[in-house]
Amino acid sequence: MPEVEGLAQFLRERAVGRAITGVEVGAISALKTFSPAPTELAGATVTDVVRHGKWLDLATGGEAAGDPHLVFHLAKAGWLRWYDAVPTSMLRPGKSPIALRVRLDDGAGFDLTEAGTRKRLAVHIVERPEDVPAIATLGVEPAALTLEALQELLAAKNQQVKGLLRAQSVIAGIGNAYSDEILHAARTSPFALTKTFDEQDAARLLTAIHEVLASAVEQAAGRPAAELKDSKRRSMKVHGRTGAACPVCGDTVREVSFADSSLQYCPTCQTEGKILADRRMSKLLR
């Protein structure tokens, strides 16, 4: 979420007030809607850039019928490449990692790109952002989360706290990386069950949510789009740092599988020195 907020600020400064002169689709699989068509954005003026959880929303107005919104989710391997002068050559579908190209009336613009073979980048052109089901079902924004609200979420279902923090329909925008960082800051095991949290535990978790994300948003603010991902990696204390020393206590950062990915944690800071069992290895040993 902090990097997406950084992108929203970056685009707001450069695209708001500019007219869209063209939209080219490089990967038809990324386009999840068929009406309005991408060509219908031509002539529309970007009026705002808004973040919804991890989604970015370019609101438009002007000649385009219905004032459509260009809404996109970059997923794990996607990113936005900004140009002060967009290449003049037209996109050739399927010939590059570029999923979508947007041209603006001052010659600038951007590409949405996605690396790797698992294509999850999603682009929607809709009349309202709430027409995207994943946006309509988003949970509370972390900055708006109160202690009372968090306690209600923790008590609603007995699950591992890592899963609660990742669930976009519960808390919008945290995701895998920042849930690792939040749990490390809160000195909490990712596998701790939510119904075991007392008021003190919940307060410590809430403080970590607010402080970790506020710090990351501040760090992302004002950075060019090209620098945001590297800045994020450098700021991580445990996520993506398997085998490195924990910057707080010096213990070795460990990794364990979780759902469809993996998580990183510090045993000394979070699990009283206990090494969490990796279910991937358990399956292999059966």
UniProtKB/TrEMBL annotation:
Domain Formamidopyrimidine-DNA glycosylase catalytic: 1-121
Manganese recorded as keyword: no
Keywords: DNA damage, DNA repair, DNA-binding, Glycosidase, Hydrolase, Lyase, Metal-binding, Multifunctional enzyme, Zinc, Zinc-finger
Domain spans labelled FPG-type: 237-271
CDD domains found in the cross-reference section: BaFpgNei_N_1
Swiss-Prot/TrEMBL cofactor(s): Zn(2+)
Pfam families on file: Fapy_DNA_glyco (PF01149), H2TH (PF06831), zf-FPG_IleRS (PF06827)
Coiled-coil ranges from the UniProt annotation: none
Reaction(s) the record says it catalyses: Hydrolysis of DNA containing ring-opened 7-methylguanine residues, releasing 2,6-diamino-4-hydroxy-5-(N-methyl)formamidopyrimidine
Record-stated family: Belongs to the FPG family.
The protein's name: Fpg/Nei family DNA glycosylase
